Each structure stands twice: as structure tokens, then as C-alpha cells.
Amino acid sequence: MPTNITIRDIPDEVYEKLKQQAELHQRSINSEVIFYLKQMVRSHRPDPDQVIARAKKLKRQAKGSLTLKDIQQAIDQGRP
Q: Is residue 3 in some structural domain?
């Protein structure tokens, strides 16, 4: 079930910009605010447990494919 919130003391310039963006996207101001809130939540930092799990999976996939010698040679070859 959707929840309602009230935002007070929005600076005039912020409200006007929000209003312009809502008109540009043919949305109500409320819909525009919801759109931006969803974007902000989606772009938030990932869950650390998910990052660790992904790193472990990549480590397992790459295990044994490069030795320290291979890495050092690649570094040395990249230097002028």
C-alpha cells in the first residue's frame, strides 16, 4: 500500500525546477517527485554482502588463470 509524505519548506527555485521538469516529462509534480525518489534509491550504493558475494564468484572464476609472474610481466611490458 502506498505511503504519503509531506515535504515542507521547499526552496522556491527547487520547486520551480521540479515544476518545469514535470511539465517537460508530462507528469504531475507528485509523479515527478516519485520518479526522482525511485532513481535516487536505485542509484544508492549496493549492498555490501552482494558486492562481497560477487567478488568471491569472480575470484573463483579467475582462480589459477594468472600467476604472480604473469602479472609482473604484464606490468613490466606496460612500462616505457
A: no
Whether 2 is covered by a domain: the verdict is no
Domain count, the chain: 1
Smallest CA-to-CA distance from 33 within 4, 70, 60, 64 is with: 4
Q: Are 28 and 18 spatial neighbours (Cβ–Cβ below 8 Å)?
A: no
Domain extent for 46: 12-78
Return the DSSP state at 64.
T
Contacts of 27 (CB under 8 A, 6+ apart): 35
Q: Note the pLDDT tens digit of each residue in 2-38.
A: 899 999 999 999 999 999 999 999 999 999 999 999 9
Task: Report the alpha-carbon distance of residue 46 to residue 67 in Å, rounded.
Answer: 30
Q: Check: CB of residue 27 under 8 Å from CB of residue 37.
A: no
